[in-house]
Every structure is written in structure tokens, then in C-alpha cells.
């Protein structure tokens, strides 16, 4: 029998679970370039944010990125798979988490190259670089997020 007290406790627990960020325990698989320290630095930052991260090495980067729908001009040193999306390179967590929460019709996000100050590359919140959405409604690529700006989602 559920008493008022049990109902109140269950309701409070449900609210806490609903308020957890998208990342809490979300499995994330990182395909890292062999010997690349910044790939592992990004994975460590993801773990610190609560993601369940596994890491494997890229064995054929061009083929593995193409298989995942990543335009080669958007390539970086590592590829992340999480909750049905692909994230290429040093994607800032604010942008990644917005995709996981909002579920837009895109294949994923990419930060081409290895911009200094991006997560895993110095972690400077004032570093300026664009995060590109690709696939689905984004086509071959559109700016999704402008890192280092006051209004990063205003593109």
C-alpha cells in the first residue's frame, strides 16, 4: 500500500532523476588517434562530467569517419559516438549536451582540426572557434555553436 509519505518520497525522487543532466551515465565511445594525448584529455574531461567513457584507437581514420557520416573536411583527431550522435574532435560539452538534450535532426557536431583552448587542447573558455553541425537538416555543415562568444548558440 502506498501511503502519502511513500508517494511524496517517490515524487521527489522522480524530480531529482528528471533534473539530472543528459550526461549522467550516458555511454560514450571515443575513437582516438594512436598516441594522441589530447584525445585522451578530452575523454578524461568527459568522464569528469559523468559520462561512461570507453576509448579505442582509430585503425583506419578516413574509413571509420566516412562510415559515420563525417565529412572529411570536418575531420579532427578523435571521433565520439554517444546516444545515436557522432561528435568529431574537440567539441565543447555545452554544445554536445544541447544536442543530446534537444535531439536535433543532425548526424552530429564537429570541431575541425585541433583549436587551441578547446576541451582537451587547453580548456580555455574564451577560445574562439566554430562548432559545425552536419548531416540531416544541417546538410554538409552549418555553424551550430560559436565557442568563446557571449551568445554561442546565436549563429
TrEMBL record:
PROSITE patterns reported in the protein's UniProt record: TAT
InterPro entries found in the cross-reference section: DUF411, TAT_signal
Keywords for this protein: Signal
Protein name per its UniProtKB record: DUF411 domain-containing protein
Pfam families: DUF411
Signal peptide range: 1-24
Residue ranges the record marks as coiled coil: none
Amino acid at each position: 500500500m502506498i501511503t502519502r509519505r511513500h508517494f511524496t518520497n517517490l515524487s521527489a525522487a522522480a524530480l531529482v532523476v528528471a533534473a539530472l543532466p543528459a550526461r549522467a551515465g550516458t555511454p560514450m565511445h571515443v575513437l582516438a588517434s594512436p598516441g594522441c594525448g589530447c584525445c585522451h584529455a578530452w575523454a578524461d574531461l568527459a568522464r569528469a562530467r559523468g559520462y561512461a567513457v570507453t576509448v579505442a584507437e582509430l585503425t583506419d581514420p578516413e574509413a571509420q569517419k566516412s562510415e559515420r557520416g563525417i565529412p572529411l573536411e570536418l575531420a579532427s583527431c578523435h571521433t565520439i559516438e554517444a546516444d545515436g550522435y557522432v561528435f568529431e574532435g574537440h567539441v565543447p560539452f555545452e554544445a554536445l549536451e544541447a544536442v543530446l538534450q534537444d535531439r536535433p535532426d543532425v548526424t552530429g557536431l564537429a570541431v575541425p582540426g585541433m583549436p587551441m583552448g578547446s576541451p582537451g587542447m587547453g580548456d580555455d573558455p574564451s577560445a574562439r572557434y566554430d562548432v559545425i553541425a552536419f548531416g540531416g537538416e544541417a546538410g554538409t555543415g552549418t555553424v551550430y555553436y560559436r565557442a568563446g562568444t557571449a551568445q554561442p548558440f546565436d549563429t
